[in-house]
Each structure stands twice: as structure tokens, then as C-alpha cells.
Amino acid sequence: xxxxxxxxxxxxxxxxxxxxxxxxxxxxxxxxxxxxxxxxxxxxxxxxxxxxxxxxxxxxxxxxxxxxxxxxxxxxxxxxxxxxxxxxxxxxxxxxxxxxxxxxxxxxxxxxxxxxxxxxxxxxxxxxxxxxxxxxxxxxxxxxxxxxxxxxxxxxxxxxxxxxxxxxxxxxxxxxxxxxxxxxxxxxxxxxxxxxxxxxxxxxxxxxxxxxxxxxxxxx
Length: 220
Known about the structure:
Blueprint: E1 6-13, E2 16-23, H1 35-38, H2 54-65, E3 72-76, H3 82-89, E4 93-98, H4 103-113, E5 120-123, E6 136-142, H5 148-161, E7 162-172, H6 178-187, E8 191-196, E9 210-216
Parallel strand pairs: 3-4, 3-6, 4-5, 6-7
Antiparallel strand pairs: 1-2, 7-9, 8-9
Helix pairs in contact: 2-3, 5-6
Protein name: Methyltransferase domain-containing protein
Organism: Pseudoxanthomonas helianthi
InterPro entries: Methyltransf_16, SAM-dependent_MTases_sf
């Protein structure tokens, strides 16, 4: 017994249907050995990794169009990992990462469910660099600026793992912390491009969601 229930959902990106195993609802919780609690995942937060969120779908669509040629790409806070699966299908050099103890299991299952090779995955917290992880030409993430402290933590990760010439792409549903993150990125030499965007088909203007694109050492 896993201690939690799952279901299958389907998401269409770039004309391709991705089959995804996700948690059956947001009330699921299973942390029998206390691993999640020890790394700071509360019972209220535990199930959040196991859903496909609007910002994740938006990032997946962006990754369908993203120029992947010659780029090593890192997805932060991948959760179910739809954007990384899209990149994997396109043949990108991608590493998915998350701190949740079950993210790797779900990602591996979903890659197999879609007939894709296993993705490179690293369990990763944002409270310190991982020297062995190296540096990346592009770092992508969705809905990761959910607390004020997230801006500082995320910018530190970018400093540690972005190449001198790099880009960062984040989809944000408008939680209010993107301005602070953009300032920190500017302090690190990144240009900032923030565009309003709908988070789903029912989202009408004015849109709170943002597509945040940062570039350093690259032409805009």
C-alpha cells in the first residue's frame, strides 16, 4: 500500500497528448517515515507536487516552443514534471529537480507512461548549492515564487547554477513576489522581460499571470 491514491490525466501540448499519473486530489498525504516533515514539507503542502497546475501547463507550452539547441536546461520545483517531459520528448538535455521525496518516482513513471527515456533527476533543496550539479544555459520553473522568501532563495539558486551567458524562464500566477525576484535578477546582471498572460482558457484580461524571461549575456 502506498498510502495515497492516484489517477491518470491527459494534457495536450504541441498537439501531443501526455498521459500523467497524478495524486487523486489535494487531500492526499503519506509521510510514514517523516522524511517530508524533516525537509520542511508540511501535511498541507505535501500533495501540491502531485498536481498539474495552470502555471505548469503554461511552462510546458513554452518549452514546446523554446530553443533547445546546444542548451543544458534545469527545471526547478518540477513536481509532476510536464515541462521536463515536453523537453525530453524534444530531445533536450534536461535535468528535472524537486525537493519532494516522491517527485522522482512520479517523474520516472510518467516518462515510461509516455514511452520516453528516464529523465535525469536530482532531489534539490534551495538552501545551498550542489556543486556536482554544475551550471546550465537555461533554468526554468513554474509557480515557485509562492512566498516572499522564495525570491531570495530562487535567485541564489540561479547565481549558483546559471552560466555567465544564460536565460531564466518562469511562469508565475501573480502571487506578488515576482517584482522582488526581478530586482534580484537585475542585480545579478539579467535583463528582465515580464509579460502578462492568461493562466487558463477562462482567465480574462487584465491577466495577473506573468511570463518572466530573464537574459544575461544574450541578445533580447
